[in-house]
Amino acid sequence: MKKTALITGATGGIGKEITLALWKNGYDVIINYNNNEKQAKELAEITGGRAFKADVSEFEAVSAMVKEIGDIDLLVNNAGIALPQMPFDAVSLDEAKKVFDINFFGVFNCSKAVAPVFIRKKQGKIINISSVWGNVGASCEAVYSASKSAITGFTKSLAKELGPSGITVNQISPGFIKTKMNEHLAQDIVKEIENEIPLGRIGTPEDVAKAVLFLADNDYITGTDIVIDGGWTI
Hints:
Layout: E1 4-7, H1 13-24, E2 28-33, H2 37-47, E3 50-53, H3 59-69, E4 74-77, H4 93-103, H5 105-121, E5 124-129, H6 132-136, H7 142-162, E6 167-174, H8 187-196, H9 205-216, E7 225-228
Parallel strand pairs: 1-2, 1-4, 2-3, 4-5, 5-6, 6-7
């Protein structure tokens, strides 16, 4: 029987690649989106998966989605947003709240919704997509870094809490990845970052997707963080 994977923010660069990788490896994929309906439907047509619109920052919407999906084996919490780089004191309270509502509470809400399903089956996997900035912090990205750091504490705590029920909870922390989020950067800045990375290149969504597949296939890794940054933040 095929396993079912729910991927939040599945229409973005990393989310789309994770979705395709899981589909190619035999999963029935559930494509969560909030705004990009066209991309979600196109991805569903490619994979034969189902697309569900739900704002991950709203627990009731997430809960309704999970109930409609039914059985789930793997949750990939990928949905996230970032603010433009700016000094901490320039970030409004509303902006900060929105970042936490999606980046952290999106993870919280989806995990809370699927946990009863996993506990009932005595198995299941949660993979949270965080960021290296959650581990080391980034200047002029204090709120984003803090929201990702919160995911780390949540991941480790939930791994301990759900482990006795046969559920694994892990985290992936990408570094500089080639996505639309970084397309606005000038080429000289990108080149400068590449020069700082020991492996000499920026990462790709495929690099992240491979780590998801690794964790999805392993039953004895939990509470860990796989950093995918080419050695950038060593």
